[in-house]
Amino acid sequence: MTTNPHSIRVLLVDDEEVFRQSTAKLLARRGFHVEEAASGEAALESVRRAVPDVTILDLRMPGLDGIATLQQVRAIAPDLPVIILTGHGQYDDAVASIKLAVVDFLQKPLDIE
Predict the structure, then answer these.
(1) Distance CA 79, CA 88 (A)
(2) 54-58 and 33-37 beta bridge pairing
(3) Residue 3: how many CA atoms within 13 Å on its side-chain side?
(4) Quick check: 49 pLDDT over 90?
(5) What does pTM read for this prediction?
């Protein structure tokens, strides 16, 4: 696959491998350059290496969960747009995300359009 050097770089963070890989393929077909991370820790390494244009972040992950990951992302890249994507979202999670300046809070399953 060749990528357009001007395409939007997306960091997709989700511990569910099948969901992450299938979503990454769908985004890549639409012209996005997608980097995958299977954990909050891997996401932080990726952001430290090269800040993406946008991050799509799952909330429920083993180890460093989405909110803890987002808090640390804000210390590295305060203006990075982050979209929370979760199948287990609760009101408290939405409030915590809003306080950390997320762009959107979306529920799985999601229509990619």
Answers:
(1) 25
(2) unpaired
(3) 13
(4) yes
(5) 0.84
